[in-house]
Design brief:
The chain is an all-alpha fold and 175 residues long. The chain folds into 2 domains: 62 residues; 105 residues, no CATH class. It contains 8 helices and 2 strands; from the N terminus they run H-H-E-E-H-H-H-H-H-H. It has a two-stranded antiparallel sheet. A hairpin with a 2-residue loop joins strand 1 and strand 2. Helix 5 packs antiparallel against helix 6, helix 5 crosses helix 7 and helix 6 packs across helix 7.
Amino acid sequence: MKISLLVIIVVSIVPIIPYVFADCTVNTDWSDAPCLDLIINGKYQQHELDKWTDYYSYKGSTFMEEKHLELNQAIKDNNLQEWVDESMSHRNVYEYYFFSGRAPNTGEYNGQFDVIKVNEDNAPQYAELPLPNMMPSILYDFGLIYITILIIIVIIASLAVGIIFVYRRKQRIRK
């Protein structure tokens, strides 16, 4: 009886382990890059997003403006995802402009966020570029639902095993 309860608990917890211990990848271009692995209530943590304002200063205006031109060309050429995946530097530039509302979503980011305040002197806003996807992550919401359902199942299974155990014990005492 105890073994079956233990099996139920282990089977319920094992799918959660990778979700709980997910970790950010190492950013080889910028060691202070924010970690955006946590979405709370469908929204990225704003203090992490705000760290992107430091990237512009870190790389310098010449580099960032040069890469911004490349980014815009990749958008026009309809190969944004390929450009972003070319290097960690490209990804960082993309994330800086994406989270400042000046680059379209490649589909990788599902959480909501408040657009960061850019620290450029004359930061133009590009009206022709779509704003970031503001829809909450369906996968994230499903993950929360999945964990909640698993916890409820474990509680119900534990109660059922406990009731059966008590019932059988009473049956043995009567005999």
